[in-house]
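thread from #wetlab-drylab

HS: before we spend reagent money on co-crystallization trials with iron/sulfur cluster, can we at least see a predicted complex? here's what I'd submit
DV: go for it
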Amino acid sequence: MPRVVVQANSEEIRFQCQRCGSCCHHRRPNQFGELIKPEQLKDFCDCSNLIYLTNKDIDRIIQSTKLDVAHFVDTLYEYDGSCVKVEDSGKKIILDLPIMKSKEESTCVFYEKDCMIYLIRPRACHLFPFFVKEETTTEGDILLNISYNPYCPGIGMGSPIDKSRLEMLVVEQFLERAEAVAEEIQNLREKGRIAWEAQIFRSIPGLKSCVRT
Ligand code: SF4
Ligand code: SF4
C-alpha cells in the first residue's frame, strides 16, 4: 500500500496577485503527447498551468451559469462524469481528469478581459499560483509538494503567505480529487478490469483544439 507524504517547503514565499491574467491562458506543453507517463509528471507540472476541476467546481458552475458541461469541461475522452479510463486489457489506466476548457488560442472559455465567473471560480483558480506537485518514489510512495507556478509575476511581491493555511487548502483540494479517483479504481479492480502490472498515465485534454506551447 503506497504512503502519501506531504513535503513542506521551509522558504518564505511572498505573493500578491498582479491581475495580469496569465493564469487564464492555459499552457498545454506538447512534448509529452496526449498521455503523460508517471515519470514525466513532475516535468509536466513544471511547465503547464492547466486548471483542474473538482466535481464540486463543476456542479457549482452548472448551477450558477446553467451552462452544459460541454461548454466548459475538457477531457481527452468524452466526458461522462468518470475520470478513470482503462485500455490495453487493463494494463493502462488513464486518469482523464476534467480541466477548464480553453478557446482556440488557449484562453479560458470564461475569460473576457476579466474572469466572468470570478465569484464562483474553481478552487484551482482561487489557489493559483499554488498547487500540489506530485511525485512517485521508486518505492511507489506518493510525495505531495506544495509548489507554485514560476511564471506567475505575483510571486515575490507583497507580504509573506500563511503557509499552513495554504497547505491545508491545497492538500484538501488534492485529496478531494484523489478520493474520487481511488474509488473508481477500486470499483474497476473489483470488476477485474485492471491488470496487476497496470501503469497509470495522465491525459492532457485539448491539445488538438488549442494552440500548442
Ligand atoms: S495569480 Fe499570478 S498569473 Fe494569475 S493573474 Fe495573479 S499575478 Fe497573474
Ligand atoms: S475561471 Fe476565471 S479565473 Fe479561472 S481560468 Fe477561467 S477566467 Fe481565469
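DV: The chain has one domain: 4-203.
HS: ok that's useful, forwarding to the group
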